[in-house]
Amino acid sequence: MSIRRPCVLFVLSVFASLAFAGTAPSPTLGVNARVPVVFVTDIGSDIDDTWALAQILRTPELDLKFVLTETGEARYRAAFVTKLLEIAARTDVPVGLGRDFGPMAEEHRHQGPWLRGYELARFPGTLHEDGIGAFIELVMQSPQPLTVIAVGPVPSLAAALAREPGIAARCRFVGMFGSFHVGYDGAPKPVPEYNVYADVPALRAVLAAPWQDILITPLDTCGTAVIGGENYHRLWSATADPVLRAVIENYCAFAARVPWMHCDFFATRTTVLFDSVAVHLAVSEEFVEIEPVAFRIEDNGATVPDAAGPFRARVALRWTNLPGFADQLTARLLAAPPAAPRH
Taking burial as the number of CB atoms within 10 A of a residue's CB, which of 115, 144, 252, 306 is the most buried? Predict the structure, then answer.
């Protein structure tokens, strides 16, 4: 049976119910301190980016300063960000258009139906046409280090580094990249991971930069991050929460269109929340074991441990408490949003 009909029924029910890169650990937070972050995302293709943006907005330890689009059609991706920011009453967060690779075909707009009737031009906040330049300016003028959370291929970040190499020394880098010992869905053999193989030269350039710290979650950990059971039921049922309602509507659209899986489980659990693990690591290293890893990146995107390799990072290789992560993420998504900080 087609899953399009259940998706439509769900949306209708919702509306009815509503009548070594460095060795530095995560930053130590003082009283009421928040980690200033930039979210670099290819939102609008895989639903996990949408969950991750909602997670950032609901994480009281994080202060979202800027969102930069990555890969594909920049305006299509930016529209997901701006619409969700409007729903969350966070139009204070500026959004920047990254490198644009031209219009995306309809079959690649996996969450496209959620944008019907929405116009990017109406966004009441700040939309930077030169998002790369705006990102550079933000970093270079920031009185404190920023944490860059990158959850997609990184051509825009690479372009920013080429334009202003000095940004790396003023930022921590936290990302979702690679596969060292484990593949997708916990498979016992590593494989080239999409965020790497989609643009190998760009990631090589980014990882070679002198960031204050490089911390990544590969498939070894993020590839098994799923919320199900009672936790997911609580998220699915939170129809009075406009942000979670928007995420679930996105998920419903995605489930009907995604080409790489038969997503008939959308009412009972999430897909793999790869990007949410990177967001978690931006503020805490709880629930995972992190080790320094030297590695190389093959032309096919494989990330291969290699003591003589050119890249160094701190890598979340194993879970110590995956259920604890799922519980914490659920609680944060359901919590009242923190007050918007004064920028």
Answer: 252
CB contact at 8 A, 155 and 97 = no
Span 70-117, pLDDT tens digits:
999 999 999 999 999 999 999 999 999 999 999 988 888 899 899 999
User: Which domain covers residue 237, as residue numbers?
Assistant: 4-16+34-334
Does the pLDDT at position 341 exceed 90?
Answer: no
User: Burial level of 200, CB count in 10 A (0-12/13-18/19+)?
Assistant: middle
Asked whether residue 222 is domain-assigned, the answer is yes
Let me know if residue 341 belongs to a domain: no
Q: What is the pLDDT of residue 104?
A: 87
> Which CATH number fits the domain that encloses residue 127?
3.90.245.10
Helix (H/G/I), strand (E/B), else coil: 44 = coil
**342: CB partners within 8 A, 6+ apart:** none
**Token output for 307:** 């003591």
Beta carbons of 78 and 42 less than 8 angstroms apart: no
pTM: 0.91
Structural domain includes residue 339: no
